[in-house]
Design goal:
By secondary structure, the chain is of the alpha/beta class. The chain has six helices and nine strands, in the order E-H-E-E-H-E-H-E-E-E-E-E-H-H-H. Strands 2-1-3-4-9-8-7-5-6 form a nine-stranded mixed β-sheet, sandwiched between helices.
């Protein structure tokens, strides 16, 4: 299965999520936006939209965002799975007509997440209520019309959602490795220095406590999502064969 990975910034790669997908048999084709203004040409069975430091509506400074929104809707129309992470989830919300705006409180570091009663996905079965996942965001979004909320907390309500059966948005970062998280410290702003003066030490402690469990969750997510990509590709191929 060929999967398009939209990477907005070099500091936020597909990470351990990509490794697990490759073990399953995925071929990942990364559109690294700082190096190319357009995605690589090809046929793709699914798409992952990663995070980034920009706002999801900042088209004037980052014109590729509008193209990503078009791709999300194109994949949706074709019944192909899309997985959006952080900024990627916000772009999905934007694509489906929802507002993206600043959250009341930023989430920096591992924060607890809680599955909703509607969370029936295989990768959320046995999710321990309150299990922390890595966060690094200042913005949030309104849940798109018809979307199903899957994970939540009391700091940022919309943590994971599903639209239909093929579109998923995750506000948190299941893809990170300890090295990726530590690299993000290079992007600390003056505001972060002022309000989170011990963030580096805090993150280092949290990684020791929570990353292994986070990675185990990511493996489950990758396996389930890849299986969905395979099933969707088979369905698309069957429908195309019937129209020939």
């Amino acid at each position: 299965m060929d999967i398009l990975v939209v990477q907005h910034v070099e500091a936020d790669p597909v990470g351990i999520l990509g490794r697990y997908l490759e073990v399953k048999g995925a071929w990942l084709h990364t559109w690294l936006v700082p190096q190319s203004l357009t995605p690589p040409h090809g046929h793709y069975d699914g798409m992952i939209v990663l995070g980034g430091s920009m706002n999801a509506c900042e088209d004037e400074n980052f014109p590729h965002l509008a193209r990503v929104v078009e791709l999300i809707l194109d994949f949706h129309r074709q019944g192909k799975p899309v997985l959006g992470i952080c900024l990627g989830a916000q772009l999905i919300a934007r694509a489906f007509g929802s507002r993206v705006y600043q959250n009341g409180v930023p989430e920096l570091g591992f924060t607890p997440l809680f599955p909703t009663a509607a969370a029936e996905e295989p990768w959320l079965q046995d999710y321990p209520p309150g299990m922390p996942m890595m966060q690094w965001h200042f913005d949030t979004f309104d849940l798109p019309a018809g979307a199903t909320l899957l994970l939540t907390n009391n700091v940022c309500k919309n943590q994971a959602f599903r639209i239909g059966s093929h579109i998923y948005g995750l506000q948190f970062h299941p893809e990170v490795t300890p090295q990726v998280v530590m690299n993000w410290m290079a992007f600390k702003t003056e505001w972060i220095e002022t309000h989170y003066p011990h963030l580096f030490e805090h993150l280092r402690e949290q990684l020791v406590l929570y990353w292994v469990q986070s990675a185990q969750f990511t493996e489950k997510l990758a396996n389930a999502w890849y299986d969905q990509v395979v099933a969707s590709a088979q369905t698309v191929a069957l429908l195309q064969s019937r129209t020939v």
